[in-house]
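[Discussion] Sanity-checking designs against the backbone

I'm trying to build intuition for which residues belong where. Below is a structure token string of 324 positions. I'd appreciate it if someone posts a full sequence so I can compare it with mine line by line.
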């Protein structure tokens, strides 16, 4: 049986990319799985990009509320905040010492972030090692993530193999990534990867008016209303087709190709689809955000379970490295 584990940073509000790329597939995988899954909020990771503590608390709640709103079953899941299990920080140190410097220097995500962000700190650089520790501490077998995280998973596998080889024992479980082939990378309002750090994201939990505003910021070209349009190069169409049924998608494709259908019309349809398709989830999200105690209780239970599992592995690692 395979243990599923995944996490989402609390560096911003959860968005459509997180939901389609991580939350929905992970919940599905957890449902199919007999063994308990590990789902956590990577709040330590969020410190690499944001130093605002109040905001972090709010975002941590929002990410937790999103998981719960999408139906995370906590009776079958260990649901926790990364920071409440500091064992992971100790394991990160050990793994740092088994991680070749050039491997981190070649990480796409570091290169990408260091070009975009003003604060290029060492945490950003060693971010993949903390991620490896997240996964290895709980001996996860399967890690559902978006395509952008594939390289981090490769690094985790490399670090774990190196560690096992050097200590001469298969103590760390080598995990596998589970990338949802149909979803891959969700584009943001500007057509680049949707991300909390790029301010191009669609937060489906926003109040109606604000959500409409965000949908209206999706970048399109300036083809006049009357002219036929190519749906395959349009961000609105791409986003719409990710959440629409096949029939709905084909209908919109025909409208694009037929002319007399503007990007404004497509945006309106996209907005309406978000609104109806996610009505239940939006309601549940609001409930949790106005009842943070409900979230807190669920997380506290998961954190206690995670402690028992994490401490056991950490003790074995300490022993192998001569720290016990
Ligand atoms: P962000 O880039 O917004 O900070 P995270 O790095 O916290 O998002 O990602 C959390 C999870 O959501 C990861 O599994 C990641 O692969 C997935 N994810 C994030 N953005 C996207 C996207 N644009 N398309 C698909 N999956 C995504
Ligand atoms: N780095 C991941 C991301 O940005 C979030 C994350 C942290 C994660 N630790 C993890 C995902 C462990 C899966 C497993 O998307």
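Best answer:
Here's mine. Compare freely.
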């Amino acid at each position: 049986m395979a243990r599923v584990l995944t996490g989402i940073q609390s560096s911003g509000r959860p968005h459509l990319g997180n939901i389609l790329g991580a939350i929905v597939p992970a919940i599905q995988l957890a449902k199919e799985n007999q063994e308990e899954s590990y789902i956590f909020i990577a709040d330590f990771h969020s410190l690499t990009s944001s130093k605002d503590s109040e905001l972090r608390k709010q975002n941590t709640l929002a990410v937790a509320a999103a998981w719960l709103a999408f139906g995370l079953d906590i009776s079958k899941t260990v649901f926790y905040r990364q920071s409440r299990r500091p064992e992971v920080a100790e394991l990160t140190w050990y793994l740092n010492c088994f991680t070749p410097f050039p491997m981190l220097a070649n990480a796409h995500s570091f290169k990408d972030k260091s070009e975009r962000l003003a604060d290029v700190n060492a945490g950003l650089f060693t971010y993949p090692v903390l991620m490896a520790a997240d996964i290895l501490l709980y001996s996860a077998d399967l890690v559902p993530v978006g395509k952008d995280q594939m390289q981090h998973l490769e690094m985790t596998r490399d670090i774990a193999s190196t560690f096992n080889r050097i200590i001469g024992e298969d103590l760390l479980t080598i995990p596998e990534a589970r990338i949802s082939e149909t979803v891959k990378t969700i584009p943001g309002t500007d057509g680049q990867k949707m991300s909390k750090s790029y301010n191009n994201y669609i937060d489906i939990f926003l109040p109606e008016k604000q959500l409409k505003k965000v949908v209206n910021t999706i970048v399109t070209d300036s083809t006049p209303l009357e002219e036929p349009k190519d749906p395959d190069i349009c961000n609105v169409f791409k986003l719409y087709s990710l959440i629409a049924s096949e029939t709905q998608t084909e209908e919109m494709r025909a409208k694009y190709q037929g002319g007399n259908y503007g990007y404004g019309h497509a945006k309106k349809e996209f907005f309406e689809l978000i609104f109806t398709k996610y009505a239940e989830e939006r309601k549940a999200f609001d409930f949790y955000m106005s009842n943070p105690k409900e979230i807190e209780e669920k997380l506290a239970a998961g954190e206690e379970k995670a402690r028992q599992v994490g401490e056991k592995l950490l003790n074995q690692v300490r022993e192998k490295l001569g720290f016990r």
